[in-house]
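Predict fold of Cytidine deaminase; 114 aa.
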Amino acid sequence: MPVTETTLDPEDSKIITLARAARARNGTAEGAAVRDETGRTYTATSVDLPSLKLSAVQVAVAMAVSSGAVSLEAAALVSEAQEPGDPDIAVVQDLGNAVIFLAGPDGTVKGRYI
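Predicted 3D structure, encoded as tokens:
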């Protein structure tokens, strides 16, 4: 069964909404949000500096880890991309087997990745 907004857990819908808001607020190509094992959420957008380039998911995971998170329950990526990049999948897998929801800028869920 395809994932739709109506089949999502409310907490998963929340991180998609947070990722969309971060993306819109900063005017970036992608926004991300992750939820850790305690239910705390972290939002981020991509970093594109001459000396540092990180995806939104990488930044959100780094924020979670630097705040003491040891595992993730879920991650959301809002982007025009058709699938999350390998580095995004890898960094989420570093903290367990959390699901990654990929959504378009309008919030439509395009896929679910583990």
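The CA atoms of residues 89 and 100 lie 8 Å apart.
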